[in-house]
Amino acid sequence: METCKIGRNGTVVIPAKLRRRFGLKDGGLVIFEEMKDGLTIRPAIALPVEVYSARRKAEFLLNNAADAADYKRALRAVRKLGLDPADIPHKRP
Q1: Residue 83 shares a structural domain with residue 60
Q2: Contact call for residues 15 and 22 (beta carbons, < 8 A)
Q3: Which string of DSSP letters, residue by residue, matches 30-68?
Q4: Which residues form the domain of 83?
Q5: Whole-prediction pTM value?
Q6: pLDDT at position 1, please?
């Protein structure tokens, strides 16, 4: 266990030994998680956000339909996207 002081603007210096152990680098991201008895600090990663086209959304909807009722819902949703389900490559459940 390590003890640190809280500096100006809430700055906390994480001891070098712990930074090395957990792979924390300058400018890296951490997560502060509130617990019943205090805070937990964990390394974090940032993932890029994927933006899907209407056609790609239609592929997901149609290919992931689990049963006939789900497939019907997917067909309606694809049509709402302004696409013809027949033009989207997929397998019916």
Answers
A1: yes
A2: no
A3: EEEEEETTEEEEEE----PPP---HHHHHHHHHHT--SH
A4: 54-87
A5: 0.51
A6: 83
